[in-house]
Design goal:
The chain is mostly helical and about 120 residues long. The protein has a domain of about 45 residues. Helices cover about 70% and strands about 0% of the residues. The protein is built from three helices and no strands. Helix 2 runs antiparallel to helix 3. About 5% of the residues are buried.
């Protein structure tokens, strides 16, 4: 009997799972862009493509500052969640082992590490 030859795809090739993930991102992006643009139009009016470049750059800086504030706050909250998950996955006094496993899953999802 000839041994079966297993052919693995290299890690850098798009798999069906990658394609599905990309499609989800594209759908979500289009929906978010549509809603954000329409909300901005309703709030500010005018035509974005005729806005002076100096005003566009100031608006973009304001948006980037908001984004940084959200990201730093999110990182702070993730650290709190990580600490709680770490405590839970290492608490051998928990009577429900599923609780430990759930904490381990949360820890892994955020850090990519088992411990």
């Amino acid at each position: 009997m000839t041994p079966a030859k297993v052919v693995l795809k290299p890690d850098n090739e798009m798999t069906e799972a990658h394609e599905n993930h990309l499609e989800q991102i594209k759908i979500a992006s289009l929906d978010l862009l549509d809603r954000k643009y329409r909300a901005g139009q309703a709030l500010h009016g005018g035509s974005l493509w005729t806005m002076p470049a100096a005003r566009q750059v100031e608006n973009a800086i304001e948006e980037a500052t908001d984004q940084l504030t959200y990201l730093l706050s999110l990182r702070q909250n993730m650290r709190i969640i990580m600490e709680l998950a770490y405590q839970g996955m290492n608490d051998l006094e928990l009577t429900n082992p599923l609780a430990r496993e759930n904490c381990r899953a949360i820890w892994f999802t955020i850090t990519g590490k088992d411990k």
